[in-house]
Design a protein that fits this description.
The protein is α+β, with helices and mostly antiparallel strands and 665 residues long. It is built from 20 helices and 24 strands.
């Protein structure tokens, strides 16, 4: 085969196998051949393309009028973009070019660029969308190069950090970080850039990123870093969010929760309580805290605490100074009952607060840069003030901090008020107990004399005073029982249990004595008092005097409310003796039955007054015996109070035993 034939064969193979569409055309511009790629591109068969004018395949409407092609111009010239007409009438965008052949014809090629153009359009749209997201994002999006210099700084970053884009582009990332952490962060970023990870979070849940604004203020941030490869250049992109507000709210909730736990466990010593609160505030919310209270009309500085131990001397000095009545922010807040916010403490302002040079030195020793003072108000009374503030220029209090200050003041004031009420109650109870002790001692002595004289009068045979003496004796015993009730109330309210000395107590004689003691009272009230006695051998394992005290209260109540009759019953049921005092009075409403054993509860009824302590004491005595007590009542038909006390153990013990009772509820 000749060289010319071999070249022709190779040309033909290339022509047929080419990926691009290839056309052969005559000098007049008619297609003389087309490869398979050309047929696929335009949808023609080879036979349909041969002989067609090239201009039939061009989209002439897309050409300028001055560029109407001649056959040669249509096929010749450098590569350019055109639209070719497909057999189905549609168009395809191509990059095309042509060159003349030595044989006089033209070889033209066409490459489909529709897919490429669509991809480029998608890329441009994606870039526009990315640029839009980056631009409008409230988060800071910052790109850095391999040297950790800033190459992109969006509007969110400008708003967060306070820098303009032209101020920061090209600057090292270190500028946005605290100086103490720059080296560590630079190493972490370099380690990430050399790793295979595509992205990771910066910092941890317990160790947040700290960033620095243009004005030097630090703030907590949540940040992540990603790696991008663009044109063979590695770019690192940091997405950062300012979480100052989120952190502030979390810190506030944590602080309030901790204070809540302290206030719940708070005792009556409110000075100690307020010291603990001041320490927490100085530790978690501010740099220093000061609490003043009003005691007996005077303002007393209770505590001044600073988180910096080197300022302890200034704190002690301020605690020792009396609060000035005329030139003091505390008295101003107490009088106005309004919070005071000073966001920026200047040297001139600090000097205006000082009473004298020594006071000014103490104030300077605290180093205040910003503070809040709020009144402590509870039940309409101003109890003192809470003040706390910052000693750092980077920490400034603002109006958004006032709601938390108000919530803190409200809780602290409530705790102080409760503590003072508790102290007042303790003093009142102590005074009452002293009075009760004196009254009980002074009354029992003459009552003892009255009882002896009444007994002596009753023992004189045929004496006309026997009846009155019996009445005097009964009244004296009743008064003594009332004194015992008062002493029992004092013991119970002091948290002391009623002691009982248990022995086998026969029911029949103690029941008869209890009824006889109140027989006179029932006769005077024109109420019939009867006994439905127990078996002769029935006995209670208990304290005889306390059992009589139970009957004194229960029968006394029944006499007050019965219409005509009171019945006292006793029966042995298993290992218990059931005692019942029943009356035919108006009864108790079902809603009131659960409250009959409450302290100071009284059934509202005209003409009947009491102290509401009788059944409460009876319940305490019954529980001290390990017994049970309950009430059955039907409105309009009467009330029955039931008491179940234990029988003596079998066999009966030889020695008496004292029961350690439970404290009644």
């Amino acid at each position: 085969m000749t060289d010319e034939a071999l070249d022709a064969q190779r040309f033909r193979e290339l022509f047929e196998l080419a990926y691009d569409a290839l056309f052969l055309a005559t000098a007049e511009g008619r297609c003389s051949d087309a490869n398979p790629a050309a047929c696929r591109l335009l949808g023609y068969t080879r036979e349909e393309l041969i002989g067609r004018s090239v201009t039939e395949l061009l989209d002439l409407d897309a050409l300028p009028s001055s560029a109407a092609p001649t056959p040669l111009r249509s096929m010749g010239g450098p590569a350019s973009e055109r639209r070719l007409r497909r057999r189905d009438g549609g168009f395809v965008q191509v990059e095309r070019g042509a060159s003349p052949l030595a044989t006089g014809g033209i070889l033209a090629f066409a490459r489909d660029i529709g897919e490429r153009r669509a991809a480029m359009d998608r890329l441009r749209a994606s870039e526009q969308m990315f640029a839009g997201i980056v631009t409008i994002s409230a988060d800071a999006i910052i790109a850095i190069d391999e040297a950790q210099h800033i190459t992109m700084f969006n509007e969110g970053a400008e708003a967060i950090f306070g820098y303009r884009r032209d101020e920061i582009l090209g600057a090292p990332l270190d500028r946005l970080l605290p100086e103490r952490s720059r080296l560590v962060h630079r190493q972490h970023v370099a380690t990430f850039a050399a790793s295979d990870a595509a992205s990771r979070r910066m910092g941890t849940r317990t160790s947040l990123i700290r960033a620095v604004r243009k004005d030097g203020a630090e703030f907590p941030a949540d940040a992540s870093i990603s790696r991008l490869e663009i044109g063979g250049t590695r770019q690192l992109v940091v997405a950062l969010r300012d979480i100052s507000e989120q952190q502030r709210l979390e810190d506030e909730q944590r602080l309030l929760a901790e204070l809540g736990r302290i206030l719940i466990d708070a005792g009556p010593d409110y000075a100690r309580l307020l010291t603990s609160i001041a320490e927490i505030i100085a530790r978690d919310l501010a740099d220093w805290c000061s609490i003043d209270v009003v005691e007996d009309g005077q303002v007393v500085r209770l505590r001044v605490i600073h988180a910096d131990p080197s300022r302890a001397e200034a704190c002690r000095g301020l605690e020792r100074r009396e609060v000035h009545r005329r030139r003091n922010l505390v008295t101003h807040v107490l009088e106005t009952r309004q919070p005071l916010l000073v966001s920026d403490v200047t040297p001139e302002y600090l000097a205006s607060l000082a009473e004298d040079p020594a006071h000014l030195e103490l104030l300077r020793g605290m180093g205040p840069t910003s503070f809040i003072v709020v009144p402590l108000v509870a039940r309409g009374q101003v109890l003192g003030t809470l003040a706390y503030g910052s000693s750092r220029p980077s920490r400034r209090f603002s109006a958004r901090d006032l709601p938390l200050a108000d919530r803190l003041a409200s809780r602290i004031a409530m705790a102080v008020d409760n503590a003072r009420l508790h102290q007042a109650m303790v003093r009142a109870v102590h005074a009452r107990d002293e009075v009760l002790a004196i009254v009980a001692h002074d009354l029992r002595s003459p009552l003892h004399t009255i009882t002896l004289l009444a007994d002596a009068m009753r023992l004189v045979p045929g004496s006309p005073h026997e009846g009155p003496a019996a009445r005097i004796h009964g009244a004296a015993i009743r008064m003594n029982a009332l004194i015992q009730d008062l002493l029992d109330v004092a013991r119970l309210e002091a948290g002391q249990a009623l002691s009982v000395t248990c022995d086998a107590v026969p029911v029949e004689p103690v029941l008869a004595e209890a009824v006889e003691r109140l027989r006179l009272a029932s006769s005077r009230a024109e109420k019939q008092l009867t006994i439905d006695g127990p078996p002769a051998a029935a006995a209670i394992w208990g304290d005889r005097d306390r059992i009589l005290q139970i009957f004194d209260n229960l029968i006394g109540n029944a006499i007050r409310f019965a219409r005509a009759a009171i019945t006292v019953r006793a029966a042995v049921e298993g290992a218990e003796v059931h005692l019942t005092v029943e009356d035919d009075g108006p009864g108790i409403a079902p809603a009131d039955v659960p409250h009959v054993f409450d302290r100071y509860w009284q059934k509202p009824q005209p003409g009947h007054r009491g102290n509401g302590l009788g059944l409460w004491i009876v319940q305490a005595i019954v529980r001290a015996h390990g017994g049970r007590i309950w009430v059955d009542s039907t409105p309009g038909q009467g009330t029955a109070v039931h008491v179940a006390l234990p029988c003596p153990p079998s066999p009966a013990p030889r020695a008496r035993r004292t029961r350690k009772p439970r404290t009644p509820t």
